[in-house]
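ok trying again, last paste got cut off:
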Amino acid sequence: MNELDRRQLLKLGAAGAALVAAPRAMAQTPKQGGTMRIGRAHGSTTDNLDPGVWENDFTIGQGFIYNNYLTEIDQNNGLAPELAESWEASPDAKQWVFKIRKGVTFHNGKDVTPDDVVASINYHRGPDSKSAAAGIVSQIEDIKADGDNVVVVLSGGNADFPYIVSDYHLAIMPAADGKIDWTQGIGCGPYKITSFEPGVRGTYEKHKDYWKSDRAHFDAVEQIAIVDAAARTNALLTGEVDVIDRVDLKTVARLKRAPGVAVEQTNGNQHYTLPMLSTQAPFDNNEIRLALKYALDREELLQKILQGYGTLGNDHPIGPANTYLATDLEQRAYDADKAKFHLKQAGLDNLTVDLHMSEAAFAGAVDAGILYSETAAKAGITINVVREPSDGYWSDVWMKKGWCGSYWGGRPTEDWMFSQVYQSGADWNEAFWSNERFDKLLKEGRAELDSDKRRDIYREMQMICRDEGGSVIPMFSSYVFARSTKLDHGAMASNWDMDGHKLVERWWFA
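nice, full thing came through this time. structure:
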């Protein structure tokens, strides 16, 4: 982001808001009607409507189906107004004033007000919060309604704050007595929940009073959890669903040849991680972590697991769509001798560890673990790949077992990604990793308005993650999904899968 972009972000007036929110060019005039059916690779019996714990593509996608947010990432991957029609910051970016859009109603008929916004954000704040968004809102010192506005005071300057409030956890829900009741499943998004069976399906009908007149073209939407990749593919081929996510890359060629099917991809910051609980032996020793990082052949995984649909990871989470990706950092490569060296530094000649993997983490995760074990063996490291069931993986394995597979959609800004997953004590710090220098740089980078200085700060943070972090990050994956050619769309966002999870309000039947 250059300085002009940053100044525009600090103050987005009504005229600028209208410009950013203007409809994009579309492939054709959208048609109204029909029921769009989505086949999701994720879905668990533990899923619920609590916005603080949405963690898989089913719950995240559902969040966008029935909710709106203060801001959104548009189809050109830019920041756009949603419930906040404009915003303005103090010169030091510590105070932000968001003007809340009028004329927006919740599914129960109640008008959206600044008080609803305050209560919705406050749900994720405070020492007792169990929300995964607690880390990104911890910088808020005060938030209050002031007429048509919401005024937010931060503990330090943050030039990226309008991006933060687009986070999928920060859904705006109706409030009563300063509290939201998420159990009611009421939002102000394009569709209303009509049924929700965790781990199975959700059904939704159009919100007749939705304020975006050029969006939400379907009469109804259905999400179906189809965890098995082959079953998901067959559901599309047989017409059971209209679109599927996480295409099995082993069979993508077959899908491309199928009549009536279009395979598409977007390139963003999605990446796969292998987090080690760095508070537990043997992963509390950075020499062990380095040995494991060198024992992996990333190029082999990229070609055999992703079929080339992605790029190499370098053990940090900043990707090709981020502004401050440090492209000059040396790419870590497979080196059995270096892996042995770091084992020796840890006082070991060999090592045996378990790696818990599941297709819930990412397509091909188990196969990736097996390939990893083969290259690690040459360095004296025995990796026992433990195949875990998909159901319950995120509640029973992730952040519970010593070493496992995971994935991240990435975030639009460096600060957001680092704050949510790598900051000491962050609720989704999946490796329970802590680094004092990293935390100090995080605060400095957040408040720094000079782009060159920010670049230097984020470069050092990427280097710290690479060389001291608790996760092996082998690769960044393109989003690859498939749809019926009966569906159509315009330009697509790449911040998340399937048009940034906004397909239900942006797509239509041709």
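cool. The mean pLDDT is 94. DSSP finds 18 helices and 24 strands in the chain.
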